[in-house]
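Priority: low. Protein: Putative metal-sulfur cluster biosynthetic enzyme. Input follows.
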Amino acid sequence: MVTESDVVEALHGVEDPELGMDIVELGLFYEAEIDGPNVKIIHSLTSMGCPAGPMIQESIHDAVAALPGVEAVEVELTFDPPWTPDKMSEDAKFILGFG
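Result:
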């Protein structure tokens, strides 16, 4: 059975192409709901008008669907709570000049 740790590891491979960093480090990944072989990913974007949004959602789906034992993936976009730079890892803040 897939674990949240497996999901997070897979999501480290999903990059925001505008910022060149993965969505976990950027704080865009909010939650994984795992129900057996079904996984729901809740995430945000840096802004509502993010032009890379559809590509990021597709990459999230593909990364999680590739995990052994996963049969269905749902990707949900939310802006509640809205993303802020405070959600980034310390490394991401440093690299992007927010530290």
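Residues 4-86 form a domain with the GMP Synthetase; Chain A, domain 3 fold (CATH 3.30.300.130). Residues 53-65 form the longest helix (13 residues).
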